[in-house]
């Protein structure tokens, strides 16, 4: 009888002598903390210099008639106002409320831009409206859709406005500004004539005097 040798199965010895401990899962890296973004810097503050007017002291806009190109067209000019007697004294103007600087001071323009913000036309300066029955209608031009035909933005300067009819015209600060406003009321009898000194034509509500 032929004899067969039994085959010895080679069984892995994973169960003999203990098992190799499983490796610990890799530790997840701790994400770096997200840096807190710094507040955006107003680009006009540095050029305005010191003293820098405070938004808390914003007193809206003083508006005057700058020019009368014809008997029935006037150009309004708005200037941001600061109501703080210490500030007004520091810039040499004096009074309880004043312009940001004297007109011939090179800091005047950036200081005005700082207080006025950026208008809807994307230029520094106020947004302009004509107020009718308590509703403010946009004065158009420079990419801003007109809601009234009685006023138009000047293409040379956001602080200037062409007006062709009597009424109440309002200038308000734009983005990155205190958002305060000022107004000028022109009467029907202000039109049809060219004045020798038109700057005092603007009236404000509740007052018979000029702004």
Structure commentary:
The protein is mainly beta. The protein has one domain. 9% of the residues lie in helices and 27% in strands. The chain has helices at 45-48, 85-90, 108-116; strands at residues 58-70, 73-83, 97-99, 127-132, 135-138, 151-153, 160-163, 167-172, 181-186. A hairpin with an 8-residue loop joins strand 8 (167-172) and strand 9. 27% of the residues are buried. Residues 1-22 have low confidence and may be disordered.
Label the structural class: mainly beta
- The gross shape turns out to be globular
- What does the largest sheet look like? 5 strands, antiparallel
User: What percent of residues adopt helix (DSSP H or I)?
Assistant: under 10%
Rg over C-alpha atoms, rounded to the nearest angstrom? 35 Å
The count of domains is 1
What percentage of the residues does DSSP assign to strands (E)? Answer: 25-35%
Could you give the order of the helices and strands?
A: HEEHEHEEEEEE
Specify the number of helices: 3
């Amino acid at each position: 009888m032929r004899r067969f040798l039994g085959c010895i199965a080679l069984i892995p010895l994973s169960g003999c002598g203990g098992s190799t401990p499983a490796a610990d899962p890799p530790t997840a890296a701790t994400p770096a903390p997200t840096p807190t973004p710094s507040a955006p810097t107003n680009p006009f503050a540095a050029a305005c210099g010191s003293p820098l007017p405070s938004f808390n002291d914003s007193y809206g806009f003083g508006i005057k008639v700058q020019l009368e190109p014809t008997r029935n067209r006037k150009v309004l000019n708005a200037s941001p106002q600061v109501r703080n007697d210490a500030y007004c004294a520091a810039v040499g103007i004096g009074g309880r409320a004043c312009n940001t600087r004297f007109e011939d001071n090179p800091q005047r323009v950036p200081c005005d831009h700082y207080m006025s913000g950026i208008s809807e036309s994307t230029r520094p300066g106020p947004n302009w409206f004509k107020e009718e029955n308590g509703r403010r209608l946009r004065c158009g031009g420079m990419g801003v859709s007109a809601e009234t035909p009685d006023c138009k933005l000047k293409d040379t300067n956001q602080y200037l406005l062409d007006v062709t009819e009597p009424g109440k015209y309002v200038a308000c600060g734009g983005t990155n500004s205190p958002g305060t406003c000022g107004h000028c009321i022109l009467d029907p009898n202000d039109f049809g004539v060219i004045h020798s000194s038109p700057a005092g034509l603007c009236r404000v509500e509740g007052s018979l005097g000029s702004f």
